[in-house]
Write a structure and sequence with these properties.
The protein is an alpha+beta fold. The chain is about 35% helix and about 20% strand. It contains 15 helices and 18 strands. Keywords: Hydrolase, Metal-binding, Protease.
Length: about 450
């Protein structure tokens, strides 16, 4: 039997087994694997064990690894393929608060019809249990048709992604030899905003920094001390306001070291996406793009670095009024990075910037909140073109190479620690409400996601 005939048999098997596949996903979604809440540690372990059992039943060699935090699940198929592939997903989920905004209990999954189509609704449906299971269902159908699993597969399913992945980098270093493959495949992404399938080829990096400015040893009366004593909110506001110039460029010395203009091929692809910034902003009650002058909206979101103030606090902000000079002010600031920007160099430049605004009797302290470099994938690898073609065949429209404004640190970790690129393909939609009440995943996304992986596996074999 030829590859085309076997592929059609796999796709037919997936279609006929959709109801059973949804039943498996429902059982998986019932496990409240909230990794950030210690009260759910047992549930996270239960989710790892559930996955391990399902993978063993399929014929994978499976290990559930203890870590200082939550377990890592690894699985392998037999060697002998054209190229080895590592598939990554995470089985932990976000907290569910506020519960009163859910239409039904978040771990009581339901399949329901909506004006936008049939969906499965539960915490983790889209991020990332539903996406992870599109891998597994494709493997299941492959084995049913071929009699064996695809060869040279390595699976890594994490239980701490939603709580910062504290155990991941040490785990990758300790198990580098057994995890290293020719390409990593990550499913924690989505389709383009217009619904077409997409391969994410670049991700911005991230630096998080909290700054605290201390001045007097107590809050001061603004009549007695105003105009004489340093006001830490004013000091902080001046430093933060000076982070950007009137063209929207970040002013930190050396900030743009390593930032590269968009490659012409990607520039053409992104232009063809027809992105409407006014419509995009209109979804959140805005209308006018702001940012770095001379850059397109997609460049601003996907290919240019940023400096953003995420929170600021100090003084009195309650009801009524209090004429006070506060003793302390604080802010949380983040930088999204592109190209080869150095996260730690950016952190140091920001700290030096703040210190330049300090009066002699004010003090600044800094608290780090993570750092990861940007990731840019090498799309000259034939796997990208083959996957793009396979996605187009499944979805009936050309797949797009897109960027992502957010950060998925695991892609950088795979590159730095295991020396391999990642291909990011996911089937989530913008309206899946991930991290929010009433999270959902389209049944179509689930079904066509599994079919897509079957096509990609066939193309890469």
């Amino acid at each position: 039997m030829g590859d085309d005939a076997r592929l059609q048999d796999i796709l037919t098997h997936l279609d006929q087994g959709l109801e059973a596949g949804l039943d498996r996903l429902v059982r998986f979604l019932r496990i409240p694997s909230i990794s950030t809440d210690p009260a759910h540690a047992g549930d996270v372990r239960a989710a790892a064990d559930w996955l391990a059992t399902d993978l063993r039943d399929l014929g994978f060699e499976v290990t559930v690894h203890d870590t200082p935090g939550h377990p890592m699940v690894t699985a392998r198929s037999q060697p002998g393929g054209a190229r080895s592939l590592l598939f990554y997903g995470h089985y932990d989920v976000q907290p569910v608060d506020p519960l009163d905004l859910w239409d039904r209990p978040p771990f009581d999954p339901i399949i329901e019809e909506t004006p936008q189509g049939c969906v499965i609704r539960a915490r983790g449906a889209s991020d990332d249990k539903g996406q992870l299971m599109t891998f597994v269902e494709a493997f299941r159908a492959w084995k049913a048709v071929h009699g064996t699993l695809p060869s040279d597969l390595i699976l890594l399913f994490e239980g701490e992604e939603e709580s910062g992945s504290p155990s991941l980098r040490p785990f990758l270093r300790a198990h580098a030899e057994e995890l290293r493959a020719s390409l990593a495949v990550i499913c924690d992404t989505g389709r383009h905003a217009d619904g077409r399938p997409a391969i994410t080829t670049q991700l911005r990096g991230l630096v998080g920094q909290e700054v605290v400015i201390d001045a007097a040893d107590r809050d001061l009366h603004s009549g007695s001390f105003g105009g004489l004593a340093a006001n830490p909110i004013m000091v902080l506001a001046q430093a933060l306001a000076a982070l950007k110039d009137d063209q929207g460029r970040v002013t930190l010395p050396g900030f743009y070291d390593g930032v590269e203009d968009l490659a012409p091929e990607l520039a053409r692809d992104w232009q063809a996406l027809g992105f409407d910034a006014t419509e995009f902003l209109g979804r959140v009650g805005l209308s006018t793009p702001i940012g770095e002058a001379g850059r397109t909206p997609l460049e601003m979101m996907w290919n240019r670095p940023t400096a953003e103030i995420n929170g600021i606090a100090g003084g009195y902000a309650g009801d009524g009024f209090k004429t006070v000079l506060p003793a302390q002010a604080r802010a949380k600031v983040s930088f999204r990075l592109t190209g080869t920007q150095d996260p730690e160099a950016i952190r140091a430049a920001f700290q030096d910037h703040v210190r330049r605004f300090l009066p002699s009797d004010c003090r600044a302290s800094f608290h780090d909140h993570g750092a990861s470099p940007a990731s840019v994938m090498d799309i000259s690898d034939p796997a990208f073109g083959l996957a793009k073609e396979a996605l187009g065949q499944e979805w009936g429209q050309d797949a797009a190479y897109i960027g992502a404004g957010g950060s998925i640190p695991i892609a950088g970790d795979f590159k730095q620690i295991l020396g391999m690129d990642s291909m990011l393909v996911g089937f989530a939609r913008d309206d899946d409400r991930i991290h929010s009440p009433n999270e959902k995943y389209d049944v179509e996304s689930y079904a066509k996601g599994a079919r897509s992986w079957a096509r990609i596996l066939t193309a890469l074999r």
